[in-house]
Task: structure prediction
Amino acid sequence: MTEEKKHIRPGRIYEITAVSNARIKGIRSLAQKKNRDNDNTFMVEGMKLVRDAFDNGWKIETLVYAPGSRAGDQARELAARARVSGAEILEVNEKVLASMTRRENPQMVVGVMRQQWHPAPAGIVDPASTWVVLDRIRDPGNLGTIIRTADSAGADGIILVGDTTDPYSLEATRASMGSIFNVPLVKLTESQFLDWRKRWPGIVVGTHLEGAADFRSIDYDSSPVLLLMGNEQQGLPPSLAENCDRLAYIPMNGAADSLNLAIATGVMLFHMGKRLPPPGNEK
Ligand SMILES: C[S@@+](CC[C@H](N)C(=O)[O-])C[C@H]1O[C@@H](n2cnc3c(N)ncnc32)[C@H](O)[C@@H]1O
Result:
């Protein structure tokens, strides 16, 4: 536990006016992955993300807000909710808050909470189950967008394989638009994944620019699907591609030689459409 953490007092309110305050510095340091890893916490900025965290049952450890800010009533309401749930509340001025959030669009509320990592899923029997596997994904914007897309398509969760970008970075949580709080995340090394994959009860579909099957020709409905997506630069390595039941390609027009990883994931998930309402239910 870091020095700053020792001072957390659940349910207590503190007024802080100095940008250099140790608690503020400690929270600000969560912008760096090594500090998030040490603490197993992360911070999110903005009322939408903090509200989404609450609504999905996440426990806020610390909530920072500016009572006199332009966010006014909404920020105060979130602070009251956080306090009732046992969070430590730091009341600050806009200057302190601006020192903690992004410069181009300073936010009025910051929430700090614990990271949640899930064990690799077991005992899956529902043919509608889909897990997305991301091999060494590098770009936090792509990762946040994939979390948002997987959530919207009704995927069960995401498995991050190998050395990946951090889903709990500010950029990834922001791009997830709140879905970070609704999509179980699993982290495995490649060898842990290959070992676990042997017990997967359905088909394993890898997407590959040299895949043998048009993605529209595969039966996704009869069994659970494990959907493997390759790294942005290198694609799926042979060690993973060889362990897929099918390698699928998405035919393309135009000059580009591949789709953006997040777009390709969205195309696959919405084509499978496993948990989407059947056509005919137009709004
Ligand atoms: C930007 S692409 C990787 C390009 C990389 N240069 C390669 O050779 O694979 C990132 C990932 O998106 C998926 N992808 C992108 N376009 C695809 C397509 N047309 N067909 C199948 N998968 C695709 C694959 O999973 C791929 O590994």
User: Anything to note?
Assistant: The longest strand covers residues 60-65. The chain has a mean pLDDT of 93. The pocket of S-adenosylmethionine is lined by residues 207-209, 211, 229-230, 232, 235-236, 249-250, 252, 258-259, 261, 264 (CB under 6 Å). Residues 204 and 245 are 5 Å apart (CA to CA).
